[in-house]
């Protein structure tokens, strides 16, 4: 088989794996929507997931972010054994810390729920406390999983980390279907414990094949751990600030009519679906590459890789965000409107999705730009810029929620993300000098023009299809939506290839790039 054929086949396999993982995640959301809709149970469940986030998300995100550049440096300069020794020590310390925080969470769960959901009372409050205590241990497994993922990605093995969401979602879906009616949302919470444990466990065989051997080690004086702590502190603060932002969103939403929190969550899931397939994949692959360029002081290679990542995100996410805004109602109706998820649920979710989609591209760019700083072992700049964006988000929340209700919360998040990327671009230019901003801007203009044309055509196309379809079955709506999306993708691709000849070469480079990073021949 020729190299070109191998490249296309390998890249296709990886894209299928990534897409499958996200599809199963979507099936999970569809299952939960069918079983619980935008009910009080879903409000409680979504609020209960915030508690572990407040306690652990900042820690686990900080660790996951800092593992890659430090592991890469050890691996490049001191060899595999030193790098794995660092992983064992970090794992021991993080597990000890998360277990202690879990115990404290058990003891103070009622107070934490009161803090996060001050408007919850009676049975709603009690159920939130119960779900919180069930979900707390999951963060121990998530912490371990993040460390294993960081090690694998540092060695440019991305396949298994990309796959761990599939069994996770299958477990949650199975439990929700089999036990959701009998035991309610509590059964789903228990399933997440099993699912997160499996996520950590399934990465170990690959690590062992690469030479890793687990051994208990807790050395707080280790130089690598000290460096993680120093790098992680700004990330910890930044993630903590983001968590506060989520907390403020949920608190304000808790004063809105029942179902508002669930609607925000469903809309956010839809928004993150595209991000998970495209921008998160690009950011994940580019991170260790940028770290290597940084270790070897290869500024030219660093900027070329960054430019490729930014341009790719612009060309992919702008049309997706426009499509999500134009087709938000049929998308939500086809995916979620069944069982307990009724027309009102569709309406509420569509409002939130429209405003979340405005910031979709900014989310993708923020992820890549933040990792470019992390790869240079600069975790302070993204933290400061992120803090400024969060302050703007909170201020906009308080203003816009009065006029747009839950739509105001989503719009505030999008505007803050757009503000954040302007800050990050400015900071990056100061740090590394010329970043070819003109080319990035022209990529943005071309992608935006093509997306607007596509959006207008897609709007009329779907409306024309749907009036000709029988209205008695949902399958016809799904067919009309699928044909419209496919046609929209073709229209956008043709326009982009006409106005930017370099786009086709980027596509070919992208296949080779993903293949070289995901697949080891």
TrEMBL record:
<dbReference type="GO" id="GO:0009252">
    <property type="term" value="P:peptidoglycan biosynthetic process"/>
</dbReference>
<keyword id="KW-0813">Transport</keyword>
<feature type="transmembrane region" description="Helical">
    <location>
        <begin position="49"/>
        <end position="74"/>
    </location>
</feature>
<keyword id="KW-0961">Cell wall biogenesis/degradation</keyword>
<dbReference type="GO" id="GO:0008360">
    <property type="term" value="P:regulation of cell shape"/>
</dbReference>
<feature type="transmembrane region" description="Helical">
    <location>
        <begin position="129"/>
        <end position="148"/>
    </location>
</feature>
<protein>
    <recommendedName>
        <fullName>Probable lipid II flippase MurJ</fullName>
    </recommendedName>
</protein>
<comment type="function">
    <text>Involved in peptidoglycan biosynthesis. Transports lipid-linked peptidoglycan precursors from the inner to the outer leaflet of the cytoplasmic membrane.</text>
</comment>
<dbReference type="GO" id="GO:0071555">
    <property type="term" value="P:cell wall organization"/>
</dbReference>
<comment type="similarity">
    <text>Belongs to the MurJ/MviN family.</text>
</comment>
<dbReference type="InterPro" id="IPR051050">
    <property type="entry name" value="Lipid_II_flippase_MurJ/MviN"/>
</dbReference>
<feature type="transmembrane region" description="Helical">
    <location>
        <begin position="440"/>
        <end position="462"/>
    </location>
</feature>
<keyword id="KW-1133">Transmembrane helix</keyword>
<feature type="transmembrane region" description="Helical">
    <location>
        <begin position="410"/>
        <end position="428"/>
    </location>
</feature>
<keyword id="KW-0573">Peptidoglycan synthesis</keyword>
<feature type="transmembrane region" description="Helical">
    <location>
        <begin position="268"/>
        <end position="290"/>
    </location>
</feature>
<feature type="transmembrane region" description="Helical">
    <location>
        <begin position="160"/>
        <end position="179"/>
    </location>
</feature>
<feature type="transmembrane region" description="Helical">
    <location>
        <begin position="86"/>
        <end position="109"/>
    </location>
</feature>
<feature type="transmembrane region" description="Helical">
    <location>
        <begin position="386"/>
        <end position="404"/>
    </location>
</feature>
<feature type="transmembrane region" description="Helical">
    <location>
        <begin position="474"/>
        <end position="499"/>
    </location>
</feature>
<keyword id="KW-0472">Membrane</keyword>
<dbReference type="InterPro" id="IPR004268">
    <property type="entry name" value="MurJ"/>
</dbReference>
<dbReference type="GO" id="GO:0034204">
    <property type="term" value="P:lipid translocation"/>
</dbReference>
<feature type="transmembrane region" description="Helical">
    <location>
        <begin position="302"/>
        <end position="327"/>
    </location>
</feature>
<dbReference type="GO" id="GO:0005886">
    <property type="term" value="C:plasma membrane"/>
</dbReference>
<comment type="pathway">
    <text>Cell wall biogenesis; peptidoglycan biosynthesis.</text>
</comment>
<keyword id="KW-0133">Cell shape</keyword>
<feature type="transmembrane region" description="Helical">
    <location>
        <begin position="228"/>
        <end position="248"/>
    </location>
</feature>
<keyword id="KW-0812">Transmembrane</keyword>
<feature type="transmembrane region" description="Helical">
    <location>
        <begin position="185"/>
        <end position="208"/>
    </location>
</feature>
<dbReference type="Pfam" id="PF03023">
    <property type="entry name" value="MurJ"/>
</dbReference>
<dbReference type="GO" id="GO:0015648">
    <property type="term" value="F:lipid-linked peptidoglycan transporter activity"/>
</dbReference>
<keyword id="KW-1003">Cell membrane</keyword>
<feature type="transmembrane region" description="Helical">
    <location>
        <begin position="347"/>
        <end position="365"/>
    </location>
</feature>
């Amino acid at each position: 088989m020729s190299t070109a054929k191998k490249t296309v086949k390998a890249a296709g396999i990886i894209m299928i794996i990534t897409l499958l993982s996200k599809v199963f995640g979507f099936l999970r959301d569809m299952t939960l929507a069918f079983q619980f809709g935008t009910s009080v149970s879903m409000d409680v469940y979504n609020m209960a997931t915030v508690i572990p986030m407040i306690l652990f998300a900042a820690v686990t995100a900080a660790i996951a972010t800092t593992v890659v550049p430090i592991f890469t440096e050890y691996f490049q300069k001191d060899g595999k054994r030193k790098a794995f020794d660092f992983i064992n020590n970090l794992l021991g310390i993080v597990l000890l810390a998360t277990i202690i925080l879990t115990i404290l969470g058990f003891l103070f769960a009622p107070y934490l729920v009161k803090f996060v959901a001050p408007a919850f009372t009676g049975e709603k409050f009690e159920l939130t406390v119960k779900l919180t205590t069930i979900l707390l241990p999951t963060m121990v497994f998530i912490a371990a999983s993040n460390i294993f993922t960081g090690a694998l990605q540092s060695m440019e093995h991305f396949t298994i980390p990309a796959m761990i969401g599939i069994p996770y979602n299958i477990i949650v879906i199975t439990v929700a279907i089999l036990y959701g009616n009998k035991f309610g949302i509590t059964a789903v919470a228990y399933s997440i414990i099993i699912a997160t444990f499996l996520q950590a466990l399934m990465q170990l065989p690959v690590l062992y094949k690469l030479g890793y051997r687990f051994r208990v080690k807790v050395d707080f004086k280790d130089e690598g751990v000290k460096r993680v702590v120093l790098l992680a502190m700004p990330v910890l603060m930044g993630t903590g600030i983001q968590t506060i932002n989520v907390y403020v969103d949920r608190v304000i939403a808790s004063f809105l009519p029942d179902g508002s929190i669930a609607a925000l969550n469903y809309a956010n899931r839809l928004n993150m679906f595209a991000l998970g397939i495209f921008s998160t994949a690009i950011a994940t692959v580019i991170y260790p590459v940028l770290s290597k360029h940084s270790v070897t002081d290869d500024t030219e290679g660093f900027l070329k890789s960054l430019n490729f990542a930014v341009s790719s995100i612009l060309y992919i996410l702008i049309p997706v965000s426009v499509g999500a805004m134009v087709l938000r109602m049929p998308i939500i109706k086809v995916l979620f409107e069944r069982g307990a998820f009724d027309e009102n649920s569709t309406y509420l979710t569509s409002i939130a999705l429209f405003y979340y989609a405005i910031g979709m591209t900014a989310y993708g760019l923020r992820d890549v730009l933040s990792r470019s700083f992390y790869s240079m072992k600069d975790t302070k700049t993204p933290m400061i810029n992120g803090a400024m964006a969060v302050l703007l988000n909170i201020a906009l929340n308080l203003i816009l929620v009065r006029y747009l209700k839950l739509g105001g919360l989503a719009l505030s998040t999008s505007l803050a993300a757009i503000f954040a990327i302007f800050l990050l671009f400015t900071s990056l230019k100061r740090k590394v000098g010329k970043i070819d901003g003109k080319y990035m801007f022209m990529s943005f203009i071309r992608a935006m023009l093509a997306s607007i044309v596509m959006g207008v055509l897609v709007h009329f196309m779907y409306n024309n299809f749907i009036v000709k379809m029988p209205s008695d079955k949902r399958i016809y709506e799904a067919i009309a939506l699928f044909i419209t999306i496919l046609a929209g993708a073709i229209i956008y691709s043709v326009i982009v290839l006409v106005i930017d000849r370099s786009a086709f070469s980027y596509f070919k480079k992208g296949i080779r790039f993903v293949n070289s990073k995901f697949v080891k021949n």
